[in-house]
Amino acid sequence: MTLNFSKCQSVLITGASRGLGLQMVKQLVSNAERPKKIIATARKPEEAQDLQQLAKSHPDIHIVPLDVVSDASIDAAVKEVSSIVGPAGLNCLINNAGILIDTDLNTVTRDAMTKTFESNTVAPLFVTKAFLPLLKTAAAAGQGSGMGVHRSAVVNISSLLGSIQLNWGEAANFKTYAYRVSKSGLNMVTRCLAAAVELEGILCVALHPGWVRTDMGGPEAPLSPEESVSSVLSVISGLTDKDHGEFLSYVGEKLPW
After folding, report:
1. Which of 60, 69, 87, 174 is the most exposed place for a label (fewest CB within 10 A)?
2. How far apart are CA 231 and CA 252, in angstroms?
3. What range(s) does the Ketoreductase domain occupy (predicted)?
């Protein structure tokens, strides 16, 4: 897959301590056409040993503490990221952090629904809202015309399981009530954000990374983290105006809401 982030000054990835987030950092930093600043956030950076080791040998990786469900933590992260990116602003925000509590109709609880919705739907909205001034700065200062990571972009890592249209027949066998509802909500958040920031030149998309063999996806998933992230980053680096407000797969196909 082709990755070209050469005109992208900075990328911020939430939930970068493991899984897809960590793999994104690994592939970005090993890419010749990489962003100048890769900002990796983790709720407990001191426990993110793999990420810490990676940062030791790559000075363009900046680890920032961020608990996406804490307003105080979000505010502190914005201040730290502001000092990292400076007057250039933030080119690309990847809202990757999330949780999965496996529940069906018999086992789902109010607490599971609330916790999942807070992490997977509410948090990306408020993280984006907090970083909006930096995203606007980058959009105004970005290289070239049109939308994309060369100016400013928000990528919400969603899931095919959030598609209302596809939740029928065999696909409905994946019960995971809390997770599916939260990702449907995230898709609506993406559309609302896209409408709100379009005139600012900020691109917004929801992106399904595939079913991946991570702690969240489980061992039966068909895609390795390396395969998924290679495709995901290729799609992100190639985003243009035509993708704004869309729900895309990890190979760039438009998905039904």
Report:
1. 87
2. 8
3. 9-163
Q: How many domains does the chain have?
A: 1
Q: Average per-residue pLDDT in the chain?
A: 94
Tens digit of each residue's pLDDT (9 = 90 or more) over 111-166: 999 999 999 999 999 999 999 999 999 999 977 789 999 999 999 999 999 999 99
Residues 6+ apart with CB under 8 A from 215: 18, 19
Q: Where are the alpha helices (DSSP H) in 2-48?
A: 19-29
**Could you tell me if residue 255 is inside a domain?**
no
Using the Cα atoms of residue 18, residue 23, residue 25 and residue 29 in order, give the sign of their dihedral.
positive
Structure-token match 């709720």, residue found? 43
Which amino acid would we find at residue 9?
A: Q
Is residue 2 assigned to a domain? no
For 106, the 3-state DSSP assignment is coil
166 within a domain of the structure (yes/no): yes
pLDDT at 2: 65
Query: What does pTM read for this prediction?
Result: 0.95
Of residues 61, 53, 55, 43, the one with CA closest to residue 99: 43
CA geometry: angle at 122 spanning 157 and 135, to 5°?
65
d(CA 108, CA 116): 11
Q: Is residue 1, in this structure, part of any structural domain at all? A: no
- What is the rounded distance in angstroms from the CA atom of residue 132 to the CA atom of residue 118? 20
Give me the helix-helix angle, 177-197 and 110-117, nearest 10°: 30
Place of tokens 């990292």: 84
Largest Cα–Cα separation, the chain = 53
- Please report, for the domain that includes residue 57, its CATH number: 3.40.50.720
Could you tell me if 205 and 250 are in contact, meaning their C-beta atoms sit under 8 angstroms apart? Answer: no
Q: Domain range for residue 214?
A: 10-249
- Tally Cβ neighbours within 10 Å of residue 70: 14
